[in-house]
Request: fold
Amino acid sequence: MVQASAYKNPHHVMLFFEQTNSAVNAHQCLSARANYYDDLKSNGKVVMSGNFWNQDKNFIIVYVSNDAELEQIISNDPAVQQNVLELVRAMPF
Reply:
C-alpha cells in the first residue's frame, strides 16, 4: 500500500486508482465499490470522486481523522480487495 503521510490530525487525502489487468467480474465489484463510497459520503468521509476522461483511472477525496482511518478505508474498498483497482498515489492536503 502507498503510505499517505504521517498525519495524526484530521486531513484530506486525494486517492488515485488505476484498473488492474486482472480485473475479473469488474462490473459487479465496481458497483459494490460505488455503494461503499456512497455510504462513506453520507457519513461525511468522501468529499468528491470522479474519473479521468478516457482513462482507466479515477480519484476520490476523503476526509480522515488520521492515517489509520485512511488505511482502513482503502483496505475495505471492494475493488482493492478484489484486485480490480489498485491505489497508485495518495496525496494528503
